[in-house]
Amino acid sequence: MLTWEIIVQLISVFLKVELKNIPASHKCDWHRKMHKDSQPTYSTYVRKLDRVQEFAAKVVTRKWSATGSDLVNQLGWPRLHLRRQLAKLCLCEKILSGESLIPTSVFEPHPSTSVRHANSKPLFLLRVHTDYHRGSYFVSTVLLWNSIPDRILTSTSRRSFKFHLRNYLFST
Question: N or C: less crowded end of the chain, CB within 10 Å?
């Protein structure tokens, strides 16, 4: 099974090939940052992937003294957490439209429309009591879904939905 730890290791191995062209001072700095976290959690792997993306931006631009996040922005690369949000919301839309093997019952419509939601098609969010459950796919996706404006949810096709969602997420 492909886990976050394996993904981070694969990307790290791939980038280590590029280390031949990097000044020695930056090699040590990057390695220290990659192994800074001692307790592996989901957020640890997310931070590591963000660091890998920032390091990749330094490799591509050969600007070793610039900050990685600035280089990612200059290159116009979408941040990895935004790409994950886009994938979550596209899968949610596919589930809700019945075009997935996952039953639509995993997402329940909210029983009443409230002014707290950004759209007119909010989903019901179960109460969560642990951080582990709060970070699960369904809970985090419902929170994202309820924050999407109506103009995106009323898209006429999946392609249009994804286009408007991408513009919304990547422009903010």
Answer: N
Lowest mean pLDDT among 40-49, 121-130, 142-151: 40-49
What letter does residue 115 receive in the DSSP assignment?
T
Long-range contacts of 104-113 (CB under 8 A, 24+ apart): 106/138, 107/138, 107/141, 107/142, 107/145, 110/146
CA 164 to CA 172: how far, in whole Å? 12
Residue 165 · residue 137 · CB < 8 Å? no
**Distance (Å, rounded) from C-alpha 154 to C-alpha 151?**
6
Are 43 and 124 in a shared domain? no
State how far the Cα of 69 lies from the Cα of 77, in Å rounded to an integer.
10
The pLDDT of residue 86? 92
Which contiguous run of DSSP H or E holds residue 124?
Answer: none
pLDDT for the residue 39: 44
Which candidate, 151, 144, 150, places its Cα nearest to that of 90? Answer: 144
Does residue 66 sit in the same domain as residue 102? no
Give, in order, the Cα–Cα distances in Å from 140 to each of 4, 92, 117, 119: 17, 11, 15, 16
Terminal alpha carbon distance of the chain: 34
Whether this prediction's pTM lies above 0.70 is answered by no
Q: Does 57 share its domain with 110?
A: no
